[in-house]
Specification:
207 residues; alpha+beta; 28% strand
């Protein structure tokens, strides 16, 4: 199994109100984008930034209940990728040493991993299946659209310029301004923007 970490949250093109959870190989360069819902995206952004909601979330209740029952989450394993869906198990340990697993949506499992500070592993077979599917998709796209149009090139350039402009503006802001902007982005559920602000805050902390 290979350990992955949460790297980013991005807006997904489709379906609407879907986001891409970006997992990155801890000791490598491979990434794994997973489509998740708005609620889970918000929960992950909150955990990435160590922000506490005003009231307990369902994930908070689950963690609290497991602690009271003396059942502790040990790690998460993403063990299957089938028809575009990732499947995950959460491995638990009882106080007496007994271990067991519970089937979970990958998004919920990742939220609990962040809350419990436990590792997320991905089976090598899952990575092989995912990247194989991606290669087939890219080949199909290449067959139907072999050349980029001028509009496509202009769009790519525009996106690149916007990212550079945004990075410059964030660098000019103080930490307090960044934190206020981050709070607003999370409140407005603009998780892609929140992730960029979070990256800038983390970069400042490492300086």
């Amino acid at each position: 199994m290979i350990e992955f970490i949460v790297s980013d949250i991005r807006n997904a093109q489709a379906p609407s109100e879907a986001y891409a959870l970006i997992l990155k190989e801890k000791e490598g360069e491979r990434i794994l984008p997973i489509l998740i819902g708005m609620t889970e995206a918000r929960a992950i952004v909150l955990e990435m930034n160590k922000m506490k909601p005003k009231r307990p979330t369902p994930h908070d209740l689950f963690m609290r209940l497991s602690e009271m029952c003396k059942v502790y989450a040990g790690y998460v394993v993403i063990h299957k990728f089938e028809e575009g869906v990732f499947y995950a198990d959460i491995h638990f340990r009882r106080e007496n040493g007994e271990v067991f697993t519970i089937d979970s949506r990958t998004s919920d499992a990742v939220v609990l991993a962040l809350k419990g500070n436990i590792p997320v592993y991905v089976e090598e077979e899952v990575l092989e299946t995912y990247y194989s599917d991606q290669e087939n998709i890219e080949e199909n796209i290449a067959e139907t659209d072999e050349e980029e149009t001028e509009d496509d090139l202009e769009l790519d350039l525009s996106d690149e310029n916007y990212d550079k402009y945004l990075s410059t503006k964030l660098e000019e802001m103080s930490l307090e301004e960044l934190q206020n902007l981050l709070d607003g982005a999370v409140e407005c559920e603009d998780f892609e923007m929140a992730s960029k602000i979070h990256d800038e805050i983390e970069r400042r902390k490492q300086e």
